[in-house]
Amino acid sequence: MSRRQVRTLGLTTALLLSLTACTVHLVSDYDDQIDSGLTQANTDITAFVDKMTGAAGTPDGTYNNNKDFYTLEKARLSSIRVRAEAHRALNSCPTTVVIKDAITTSMPQQPPSGPIPAMTPQQVLARLPQDDCEVVLISLIQDAFGDLETFHMAQGQKGIPPSARDPILVGGVGSLIHSGIQVEIAMKSGKYPGGS
Questions:
Q1: What is the domain extent for residue 110?
Q2: Distance between CA atoms of 109 and 144, rounded to whole angstroms?
Q3: Number of domains making up the chain
Q4: Any domain includes 194
Q5: CA dihedral in degrees (43, 136, 91, 27; nearest 10)?
Q6: DSSP 45-81
C-alpha cells in the first residue's frame, strides 16, 4: 500500500470513527439525492480516469480536450454540497480535532514524490473547513477533484499516465467519494460503526 493510500485510509477511518464517537446528533439526515449523486460521481470519475489513462500521450487524453468533464463534474459536486448544507446538523464538526490528529499522524511531513503531487499535513489542514461533518467530507471531495484537474492540466500533452490511476481512485478523490458513500449508507440504515 502506498503512503498516499495509507494517508487516505487513515483520514477516512478517522472521519468515520469521528462521526460515531458521540451520542449527540453529529451528522445530518440521510438524503437519497446526496447518496445517488456521490454514487454517480464515483462512476463518472472512475470511467473518466480509466478513459484518460488509456488515452495518455494522445490528443484525446489531454486536459484541453477534456475541460468539459471538469466543468460538469464540479457543478455536480457543488449541487451535492448544496444539498448537504441544506441538511446541516451543526455548523461545525465537533470531531475536527480527531480528523486533524489523524492527518498529522498518518501523513509524512515530507510527502513522497510521484506522478501526483502530494501535500504536507499542514497543507491538508489548511484546507479543512469548519462546518457540518458531512459538508466537511464533501468539501474534501471537491478539493481532491480540484487536485485531479490541476494534475491533469499540468501534465500537458502527456495526459494522465496509467501509473496515476490507483493514486487517484484508490488513494485520492476515489477514496473520499467511497467514504462519502459509506457515510450515506450508514445514515440510511441508521447503523453507524460502533452503534447508532
A1: 3-187
A2: 19
A3: 1
A4: no
A5: 60
A6: HHHHHHHHHHTTTSGGGSSGGGHHHHHHHHHHHHHHH
Does this model's pTM top 0.90?
A: no
pLDDT tens, residue by residue, 40-94: 999 999 999 999 999 999 999 999 999 999 999 999 999 999 888 886 655 545 4
Beta bridge partners of residue 192, listed in sequence order: 195
Evaluate whether residue 195 is within a structural domain: no
Quote the cell numbers at residue 161: 499516465
Residues in a beta bridge with 195: 192
19 vs 156: CA distance, rounded Å: 40
Calpha distance 156→144 (Å, rounded): 19
- C-alpha cell recorded at residue 148: 485531479
CB 37 within 8 A of CB 79: yes
Query: CB 56: neighbour CB atoms within 10 A?
Result: 19
